[in-house]
Design brief:
This protein is of the alpha/beta class. It contains eight helices and six strands, in the order βαβααβαβαβαβαα. Helix 1 packs parallel to helix 7 and helix 5 runs parallel beside helix 6. It comes from Streptomyces pyxinicus.
Length: about 200
């Protein structure tokens, strides 16, 4: 697959909400979830600084809360946050319109859950003719559902890559990577990402 062109992609953050996994959910690996959130914060800050549009979804915000504060605080002023009722982002008319409004043909997906909302979204966006790339270390489902979701994506021909790989696709050269680090030294690299 070709490299991801930052001038032709949008970032879609799916349902990373404060009450999605209440404390009673004992199957949730809280450290893995927290690490995923930190990677999404970092990717969101990268997108902001590189001028990449961001669309955020919230499934049933009345019941699952709003986007976690760490991600909300990293969102660019131009980001759009919309409620989601169908599992696939493309099946929600308002979200589909926001995606179309980015005028980008590559969608980079992060969020939860890998096997349901992320998978449904990736498959439907792919069917709509868009290129889709799922950041495999910036998506999450509890237990074996995460790996099952990644296998389903692979079976559907959906690309996956890491947050690190995404960064290097976006900057492309040593000179630009070094310039980015020099200019944005405040942007801490999250756990599991070695640049």
């Amino acid at each position: 697959m070709p490299l991801i062109d930052r001038d032709d992609c949008a970032l879609v953050i799916i349902d990373v909400q404060s009450d999605f996994y209440p404390p009673g959910r004992l199957d949730v690996d809280r450290q893995r979830f927290h690490d995923m959130v930190r990677r999404i914060v970092w990717i969101t800050a990268l997108a902001d600084r590189l001028g990449i549009p961001v669309v955020v979804t919230e499934e049933d915000p009345a019941g699952s809360g709003h986007t976690v504060p760490e991600i909300r605080d990293a969102l660019p002023a131009t980001a759009v946050t919309l409620p989601k009722n169908a599992f696939a982002v493309w099946d929600n008319p308002g979200i589909a319109a926001a995606i179309e409004a980015t005028d980008r043909s590559t969608m980079v997906l992060t969020g939860i859950e890998t096997d349901i909302c992320v998978a449904h979204s990736a498959i439907r966006l792919h069917q709509s003719g868009r290129r889709v790339a799922v950041v495999d270390d910036a998506v999450y489902s509890p237990g074996p559902a995460h790996e099952r979701g990644l296998r389903r994506l692979a079976g559907e021909g959906i690309e996956t890559l890491s947050a690190k790989e995404l960064f290097y696709d976006w900057v492309r050269t040593i000179e630009e990577a070094n310039a980015f680090h020099d200019t944005h030294a405040d942007l801490a690299v999250p756990p599991g990402v070695r640049l």
